[in-house]
Amino acid sequence: MNSPTLIVGLEVHVQLLTESKLFCGCANRFNPDEPNTQTCPVCLGLPGSLPVMNERAFRLALKTGLALNCDISPFTKWDRKQYYYPDLPKGYQISQYDLPFSHDGWLEIDGDGDDGGRRRIGIIRAHLEEDAGKNLHDESGRGGDSRVDLNRAGTPLLEIVSQPDIRSPQEAKRYLEDLKLLLTYLGVSDCNMQEGSLRCDANVNLHVTTDDGKVAATPIVEVKNLNSFRGVEQAVEHEARRQLDEFHRTGRKLGDPGVEKETRGWNADRGVTFAQRGKEEASDYRYFPDPDLAPVTVDEELLETIQDELPEFPAERRARFGTAWGLSNYDAAVIVDQGAVFADYFERVAKTCGDGKQAANWVTQDVLRELNERQLGIADFPIAADLLGRLLAKVVAGELTVKSGREVFAELLARTDRGEDIGGGDIDAIVAEKGLAVVADTGALEVVVERVIANNPNAAEAFRGGKPQAIGKLIGEVMREVKGADAKVVRQMIVERLSR
Amino acid sequence: MSAPLAREEVVRVARLARLKLSDAELERFAGQLGDVLGYVQILGEIDTTDVEPMAHAVERTNVFRSDAVQPSLGREQALANAPKSDGRCFLVPPILDAG
Predict the structure, then answer these.
(1) What is the rounded CA–CA span in Å between residue B29 and residue B5?
(2) A48 contacts in B (CB within 8 Å)?
(3) Considering only CA atoms, which of A283, A491, A266, A486 is closest in space to residue A395?
(4) Residue of chain A whose alpha carbon sits nearest to that of B75
(5) A143–B94: do the CB atoms touch at under 8 Å?
(6) A413, A434, A455 — which closes off a domain?
(7) What average pLDDT does the structure give for chain A?
(8) Are residues A376 and A471 in the same domain?
């Protein structure tokens, strides 16, 4: 038996970054501490209230559709999807059924191999709908009432449905990561998974080649509410194993009588999917066009306007960082994957110091380390890109060693930690105070070298006697006295002096 | 008088609407719903061969509002009509979810 083929499609829900909700003026803000303070007759579904479409939400949706290479429908409308659930006060969700605003796009991701091969994952559609509120279940086990917070009810939500083109758990994770990165570059969502701004369901099944050479498909399972990248990867992996095992035991196939699509949950602690209570009957949402909302038409002019607003996408940016700044694929990916603001920061540092590789080293090592230690985003990093660029310009010009540059960098941070404002003048001041300027004057250096050798006859003797490592002590002494000295130059001078 | 709706259809629609109907009501609504459908069926007599389906009864499109925050209701007002609340949230009978 060949190994089975894994078939995965992802449904991603992403909250849009608007000020107000999709159909009313209530604030679109994550606020679980103050439940039911961001509601009005429209999002509470009170009689007589009427929804009006948020223009910005629709434009953000269009932006996303274009970035996902979708066809944009010239005519789109909204429909009522009817079901009863306590977090849905109207008894229906305003969604899009047969005329979504966009369809038939794709997102390109890295393939599983190391050969740099790319995989194009199809997008069936993206549509704009309203989010539901939040049910908070009684967890005491005593069967207490569930509580309902409607702050989230009516916030704008984009549903992005991929084709079942994903073939491995790793690909599922990468698709979600790349989608999130794209959405944050576009600025359409903060994609905060902890706060539920980005949520994912996975449709999973297997194509198994049986001994008689026929291909059988296992029943499709939808794994709901995957709220982390790792969760998506692990849930798909677990589900693939579980389905193969079940197929071997029961032989149940897609299309067999009585086989329906199953909904399962994901238990991240135990690493298993679990069956959710079956619905009493197959869902019947009885969609029909919402009579309260006018349809929307999109003309070429609007599309061009939105197209012009599109930023450089992450994939393009990685490629450009390679060609324009000479970065390795790895460095370019590390920088771009940190987000647009970080990549902008890098680019400004590179422009100011004129050396992309040097800028990449500092940004991916020193800056990232400080950000992690300080739990900061790049927007709040105390050393501005221009300032770091000016510091690195000195390193690039050979006026400072990399080691001295790090000392200045640390001192700049120390000054901001003390609440001081820092500027370009601080770099020169620190260099002068600490005596870090590279000493190009070999005459001055020679004096120190002579003195250090004279003061350390044992080390000098050991080096002459065939112990090259003894030179370390001598270099160290010289460097202590002349901080700005270039260690390579010092080594060379000592070697020459001792071999005379 | 049109043909009444099949009884199981009425049961299904009632369940979707979360309505509990007695046998007598099922009987009565089967007849009434059949009448309503029969009345709407009259539209079927019109020849719509070359007519585009309508998405909306009004011919207006692109009705938008700007993305501006307006004051919300106070929580007390928001919860005022709730059959049950704890002063912060709406309370509903426990929702059973496996997991």
Answers:
(1) 8
(2) none
(3) A486
(4) A37
(5) yes
(6) A434
(7) 92
(8) no
pLDDT single digits (tens) A360-403: 999 999 999 999 999 999 999 999 999 999 999 999 988 888 98
Query: Any idea which residue has 């576009």 for tokens?
Result: A186
In terms of DSSP bridges, do strands A5-15 and A198-209 run parallel, antiparallel, or are they unpaired?
antiparallel
Residues A446 and A430 in one domain: no
Task: Compute the average pLDDT of residues A178-187.
Answer: 95
Domain encompassing residue A372: 312-434
Question: Which among A101, A90, A21 has a CA at the least distance from the CA of A53?
Answer: A21
- The pLDDT value given to residue A441: 67
Query: Taking 90 as the threshold, does the pLDDT of residue A349 lie above it?
Result: yes
pLDDT at B32: 94
A225 Cβ contact partners less than 8 Å away, ≥ 6 residues apart: A199, A201, A265, A266
B-side interface with A, Cβ within 8 Å? 12, 15-16, 18, 55-58, 60-75, 78-79, 81, 84, 86, 88-99
CB B66 to CB A56 under 8 A? Answer: yes
Cβ–Cβ below 8 Å for A75 and B73: no
Domain-embedded: residue A258: no
- Nearest-angstrom CA–CA distance, A58 and A77: 12
Q: Is A238 a member of any domain?
A: no
What's the pLDDT at B98? Answer: 39
DSSP letter (8 states) at residue B45:
G
pLDDT of residue A340: 92
* Domains of chain B by residue range: 7-44
Please answer yes or no on whether B64 and A84 come within 8 Å at the CB atom. no
The answer as to CATH 1.10.20 being correct for domain B7-44 is yes
Number of separate domains in chain A? 3
Q: Are A491 and A364 in a shared domain?
A: no
Name which of A17, A18, A58, A145 to mutate to probe chain B: the one with the most chain B Cβ atoms within 10 A of its Cβ.
A145
Q: Do B99 and A297 touch (CB under 8 A)?
A: no
How many of the other CB atoms lie within 10 Å of CB of A103?
17
Percent of chain A residues topping a pLDDT of 90: 71
Asked if B55 lies within 8 A of A295 by C-beta distance, the reply is yes
Which pLDDT does position B99 carry in this prediction? 38
Residues A384 and A461 in one domain: no
How far off is chain A from B64, nearest CA to CA, in Å? Answer: 5
- Residues whose CB is less than 8 angstroms from the CB of residue A450 and which lie 6 or more positions away in sequence, other chains included: A497
Please write the tens of the pLDDT for every residue from A249-285. 999 999 888 888 889 999 999 999 998 865 544 468 9
Residue stretches of chain B with pLDDT short of 50: 98-99
Instruction: Tell me what ipTM this predicted complex has.
Output: 0.89
